[in-house]
Structure formats: C-alpha cells, structure tokens
Amino acid sequence: MAERSGPRMYFHTFGCKANQYDTERMRQEGEARLARTVESWAEADVCVLNTCTVTNAADASARRLIRRIRRENPEAKVVVAGCSAALKADAYRSMDEVSGVVEGHDPVAVAGAAVSALPRPVQIEVRAGLDRIHGEPIGGELLRRRRGMSRGWLKIQDGCDRKCSFCATRLARGASRSRSPDEIVAEARLLARTHPELVLTGIHIGHYGRDLEPRWTLSRLTARLLDAVAEVRFRLGSVEATEIDDLLLELLETSGGRVVPHLHMPLQSGADPVLRRMRRWHTREQYRDRVLEIAGRVHPLGLGADVITGFPGETDADHARTRALVEELPFTYLHVFPYSPRDGTAATELSDPVPERVAGERSRELRELAQAKGRAYRQGRVGADARVVVEVGGEQALTGDYLRVGVRGSPPDGAGGVVPGTLQGDGDHLYIAWPRV
Questions:
Q1: CATH fold of 8-117, please?
Q2: First to last CA, the chain
Q3: Which of 29, 70, 102, 187 could link 107 by a cystine bridge, Cβ 3.0 to 4.6 Å?
Q4: Which CATH architecture does the domain made up of 132-380 adopt?
Q5: Are 216 and 226 in contact (CB under 8 A)?
Q6: Domain coordinates of the chain in residue numbers?
Q7: What is the pLDDT of residues 264-287, one digit of tens each?
Q8: Which class for 82: exposed (0-12), middle (13-18), buried (19 or more C-beta within 10 A)?
Q9: What residues are paired with 153 via a beta bridge?
Q10: Which pTM was predicted?
Q11: How far apart are CA 172 and CA 192, in angstroms?
Q12: Distance (Å, rounded) from C-alpha 196 to C-alpha 15?
C-alpha cells in the first residue's frame, strides 16, 4: 500500500482522559482527510496541541511547548485547541508561533484549521464508510481505535452542570451532554476489537443520562455495556463518591472484575468549611461513609482522589482535617495540587488567600502520605492473583486495581487481552508472574 501523500500531523495532549479521547477523534478526522499521523513534531507539517486549563501551570506548559516546537521546526504550523484555547483564544492568536485556534474540541474544526494553515494546497477528500454520530457532544465519526494503545477511551458525556467555585473546565466545556446508549455501545464494539480494556470517560460521568429522554444513569449504562460487549473489561473514569449508586456498587462487587475494582473519587478537601467555599455538594462525612461502604464490599480496591491545598480561607485546622481523612481512608494514590486561581471562577473573589509557600508545603505533606499508603498497599498485594492488561511494548501491565507493574517473560499462549497471573516483588517494584503450564 502506497504511503499517503497528505500532510503530516503531530498531536500532543495535555490533561485528562477526556482530552486524550478528543485528541484521538482529532487524529481520526485528520486521517479521514488523508493526513498522516507522525510521532514527532520535528517531522510534522502541522502540530495540533489539545490544551488543558485546570491550572495556571497547564496554560504555561502549552505556551512553552508552542515556542519549543517552532524553535525546533520553524516550518511547522501550530494549531491550538482544547480547554485553554476555549478560554484564552485571543492570547493564543496573539502568539506569532500560532497559525490557528479552535475554541474547544471539535475534531472537524481542528482538521479544517490544520488544512487552512498549510501553505500549499492539499487533498482533503473525506473517506466514505465512517458512521456519523448525530448529537454526539463533539460531533464526528465513531472512534475506531486509540492509536498505539492497549486501553481504549470511551467517552460517554461532555461538560458539567456543577458549579465548583475553583473550576474553569466547566466554563470551557459547557453544560453536561450525554451520548445515547446506542451510540456508546456501537463505539465500544469497535474499540473492543483492538482494546481489551475500555475506560468510561467524560467531564462528569456521574451525571450521565440526566439530559436524555428517557433518563439514564451511569450504572444502567455500565450494565448494558457488560451485556452488549463481551470479553473486555471496563474501568470508570473519575466519578463522585455520592454518585456511585447501589447498582454501580453491585457491579463493582459482583462482575468478576469486568468492572474493575478501581475508583477515582474527587475529594478536594476533608474540611467542611473549605468544601462549602469550594461549592462542593458533599460533606466530609458523606464522602467518608460512602468510601468505607465501598471498601467494605470491593476487594481489592484501587482508590484515588484529587485534593486541592491552600484554597482561600483554608486554615491549619482545615488542613489537619484533610490529612486525618486521608490517613483514615484506604487511598492507594492521590493527585494533589496547590490551589491555582482561574479567571472567571467564583473562587477568585474569595478573601483570605493562603500563601503559595504554605499551599506548597501542604501539598508536599499529602503527597508523601499518599506515597507511603500506596507503597503499603502494593506490598500487601505481593503474592496475590491479578488479571492484567499488557500495555503496548510489553514491558508493563495494568492490574484491575490500577497498579502499573512490570512484565517478565511472555504471557501464556492464547491467554487473550486480559491475562491472569501472580504479583511478585515488593512495595516499590511489582511485576506480574505468569502461571507455569
């Protein structure tokens, strides 16, 4: 088969799994117009950056990469898309290095901007035979594969209806919009051909189906996927503790690992006064009670959370309450960030800012605590059975409870995509050992 003669496109993703999914849709849309995806900006005609705006650091990282790309490949055209582009479009347009800006994640618009940025005419014919989704949050074809990866992202919704006072992602993504169950199942069947694990992702997946008629829920969708798409396992993306209903907990407990025993449940703070200023909708005890109930029924359990330190008004006592909750609950990892004020959010109007040095020290303290808890959890898993998905390259694998482990040797012949084995090593370095035949 002759190599395509279309433009060479490089894609770089900042941020969450929803952004990673969106990049794959951008890539697919570009390839549908006969573009070639390349692995390095040094060889690209067009570089597409899918940006994140969760922190000021994320915005700054995008700007640095734009400048680096143009220094190292002056002929490359740079197209900026994503959440940061949605909120800071004029700032990106003012950069000499930027050739095009898409205010959001629409893959058709990204492909059009990339073609428009090129200095010479190119073939932009769209291949036939790709199913269109009408009403899908970002539009376009069903995602057929996640390029070069053994785990596939399955986007079920976009946007968020909550109004957390610190969050700019909601401003960039808009209101919650759910894809129809039929469309999700169709895409899952395509992805299952090449991916033994599918991750249900979005911006607020716990609100899945609230805008559909008839109304759906995340748990009903998960149950349907289990019935409709065989021989793959499903992993939930970030989901609120208060939005894990009884059916979803039952599926985690009884599906035999097909809904993997791993939850990432944003906490943000373990102090009620801070949670109120953050405009979170759960209390410390509501979060605690649900986590303990889940942990009492699902074994093993990989458990992660997001925590923000140094939120305006956070006192030493508030931080101590957060630390105490982290110590009590069976977290296996945390994502901890010092508070970063975002333009347009309510939190920028709050008084009593916390010094950056203090917020940083609190972050470091919680990260060290989380690392110790994670190490102890991994040590406790030594000698236990696990089912893993071997990642591309064959040097690492991922357990259901979200432990990335080493791989020694080759999986047994005919083992399939999700492979059983035994965890060996220690709390710092785990690897999967295959059963002897």
A1: Rossmann fold (3.40.50)
A2: 40
A3: 29
A4: Alpha-Beta Horseshoe (3.80)
A5: no
A6: 8-117, 132-380, 385-433
A7: 999 999 999 999 999 999 999 999
A8: buried
A9: 199
A10: 0.89
A11: 30
A12: 23
